[in-house]
From TrEMBL:
It comes from the Bacteria. Pfam families: Csp. InterPro entries: Csp_YhjQ, YHJQ-like. It comes from Clostridium magnum DSM 2767. This is Cysteine-rich protein YhjQ.
Length: 117
């Protein structure tokens, strides 16, 4: 592949990776929350996990395509990731802690993108 076509996405790679990781962990956490004994208490968390995974996939895709709106998408992604991390933080499971960490990392990377674009 032509190196000039690859170069522009390199500035986004760290954020793309963080978004992909966050989406994966949100989806895994979503599945695990559904089988927890206190699933009803996790309703808000479960909804946040789905939203977070979706915006993370959208943000990664927009960066890969070099969307004209990548700054706004990444800003929204950071906001949703922080909300999801906060909600996951209410539970004391390995999967919710890992997900909250990934959400915080993704939010940090997305905030950096807002300053780069």
């Amino acid at each position: 592949m032509n190196a000039t076509l690859m170069a522009p996405n390199m500035q986004y790679q760290s954020c793309i990776d963080a978004c992909n990781k966050c989406a994966q962990l949100c989806n895994e956490c979503f599945r695990m929350c559904l089988v927890e004994p206190d699933v009803k208490a996790r309703e808000h968390c479960i909804v946040d996990l789905v939203e977070c995974a979706e915006i993370c996939m959208t943000a990664a895709s927009s960066m890969t395509k070099r969307s004209y709106h990548v700054d706004r998408i990444c800003n929204l992604c950071a906001t949703i990731c922080e909300e999801c991390a906060s909600e996951c933080g209410k539970f004391n499971d390995d999967h919710t802690r890992a997900c909250a960490d990934a959400c915080h990392q993704c939010a940090d990377e997305c905030r950096k993108m807002d300053n780069m674009v």
